[in-house]
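Please check these two lines:
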Amino acid sequence: MKRRLCILLAALLAMTAPLTGCGATETEEEGISIYYAAGDQETYGQAAVGAESWADGSETSTVDEVFARMLEEPATDGLSQTLPDGVRLWGWTLEDGALTLNLSEDYNGLSGISLTVASACLVMTMTQLDGVEAVNITVDSQPLPEGSQVPQTREDVLLTGEIQDPATVGFQLYFPLSDWSGLGTEYRETELYSASLSDQIDTVIEMLAAGPGTDGMESAFAGLEAHLDSRMVDDVCVLTLTESWAAELCARELSCQALVNSLCELDQVEAVAFDWDGEGQESLEDTYYADYG
């Protein structure tokens, strides 16, 4: 029953071209380039990042100065802020060419394409500074969730194709029928700039929270958070539940099975488990497997 992901990769960026695949070209003016999101991020447009020149900046600017500039809204049409509201730079270290940025908890509010683009913008901007060859990102001194780590170097951003080469990915989703007599299915495709498993899991959660686009099915997770932290333990996807998700899964078995079935359609997910310490924990099983009946 498991569907193969439909991945149609665009042509690789020609490395001799000046960042045209990222939606912008390097400026030859003095200063440095500040990178932002570009294109229609809501629909995962072809462009993902673009840059505008910061004449007051230079290769010798401090990390704090550059980060403060990145928090400003871009003046260039077609570019938009990629860092979340309220995010702060708690500190940074530079050792052997590797810059580690310690950001506030607000950065954890990003997921999927938003996280990929924001992290790429930090890499592309910061690696213009003297002595910075690679960038690591931590949140409150903790690394990003496994599978969400940012590419380390400028070359990584360009070569992986995560930014400039979108992939069309298909997802088989499950929703309770309107009369709650069983589950219905809906196949949906979208373009992602990273087909990593963590981004696919994030996309499934976002689509389930958005609800079905087909009549006769119920939006079991409407109004709930569109992101849950996840990690893989062997072939089991472990989701860290919020109180609202836990309440829905405990209250209605079909909601739980809709979530499990949808995630188990992903090639590398064979089962789903829940990490949650709230009231009613005993009502959730240790591990759930897909039930297509």
Notes: Residues 112-126 form the longest helix (15 residues). The chain has a mean pLDDT of 78. The first strand starts at residue 32 and ends at 38. Helices lie at 63-70, 112-126, 154-160, 197-210, 243-251, 253-264.
